[in-house]
Amino acid sequence: MPPIDTRSIALIGLRGTGKTTVAQLLALRTGWDWVDADVEVELSAGKSIAAIFADDGEAAFRDLEAKVVSELCRRSQAILALGGGAVLRKENRDCLAGCQAVVWLKATPETLAGRLETDSTTAERRPNLTNHGGRTEIEVLLDQRDPIYRGCATLEVDTEEKQPAEIADEIYVALVG
Ligand SMILES: Nc1ncnc2c1ncn2[C@@H]1O[C@H](COP(=O)(O)OP(=O)(O)OP(=O)(O)O)[C@@H](O)[C@H]1O
Ligand SMILES: O=C(O)C1=C[C@@H](O)[C@@H](O)[C@H](O)C1
Ligand SMILES: [Mg+2]
Questions:
Q1: Which one, of 96, 74, 98, 99, lies nearest residue 85 by Cα?
Q2: Contacts of 31 by beta carbon, 8 Å cutoff, 6+ apart
Q3: pTM for this model (two decimals)
Q4: Where, in this chain's numbering, is substrate bound (predicted)?
Q5: In the chain, what are the helix, strand and coil shares in percent, each to the nearest 5?
Q6: Residue 95 has pLDDT above 90, yes or no
Q7: Dihedral sign, CA of 16, 138, 160, 170?
Q8: Superfamily, domain 9-171
Q9: What distance in angstroms lies between residue 147's CA and the mean position of ligand 1's atoms?
């Protein structure tokens, strides 16, 4: 059964927490569409996120991302998989506040590093954001972003040792019943 509240549901969290993966499964569960902010940014730029960072820099990527977030947050009946840093700008957080729910997916740095290492989209979509890379970068970002994710989230979901389908079910039950 689709949710009664037709406002979209947004997924936030660090790289590798499973936003893209879980969004697709939650879309199946709700019968809603799903959309990925990173894909939309790449379509708008006509190149990969790695190429945007390399050619134009991170600030240019964040400008494109803000346009996409603003458009996506105007949609109803959609599951929104956001980029890991989409919560950094206040304008994006203000847009997110209009969603039915903002679901924060969480996992330990060790788990995230393992998932990202083996994911085929990492080279194209996940350029380094600090001078560290790897697990150290994840720990640095977690420190910086934890309070920001917490401030935006209306629901927190631990993804550790859970299959993506279980996580989608957990979110569905928490939000729809
Ligand atoms: N609960 C899980 N258990 C095991 N592997 C998972 C889980 N969730 C996602 N993964 C795997 O981790 C990798 C990253 O997942 P995904 O792309 O969905 O993360 P993301 O949060 O969208 O990352 P990004 O912020 O970079 O877009 C994928 O290979 C995916 O299959
Ligand atoms: O955590 C981040 O800042 C990012 C996460 C990815 O989803 C992409 O949006 C991009 O690689 C930046
Ligand atoms: Mg993603």
A1: 96
A2: 2
A3: 0.98
A4: 38, 62, 84, 145
A5: 55, 15, 30
A6: yes
A7: negative
A8: P-loop containing nucleotide triphosphate hydrolases (3.40.50.300)
A9: 21
Q: In this structure, are strands 33-36 and 78-81 parallel, antiparallel, or unpaired? A: parallel
Would you say the CB of residue 81 lies under 6 angstroms from ligand 1? yes
Cβ 84 under 6 angstroms from ligand 1: yes
Inform me whether the pLDDT recorded for 3 exceeds 90. Answer: no
* Residue from 165, 20, 171, 160 nearest 84 by CA: 20
Residue 167, classed as helix, strand or coil, is helix
* Binding site listing: 16-21, 38, 62, 84, 126, 145
% the chain with pLDDT above 70: 100
What pLDDT, in 10s, does the model give residues 100-155?
999 999 999 999 999 999 999 999 999 999 999 899 999 999 999 999 999 999 99
| Interior/surface letters 41-51, b for 16+ CB within 10 angstroms, e for the rest | bbeebeebbbe
Binding site feature residues for substrate? 38, 62, 84, 145
How far apart are the C-alpha atoms of 42 and 65, rounded to whole Å? 9
- The verdict on the CB of residue 126 being under 6 Å from ligand 2 is yes
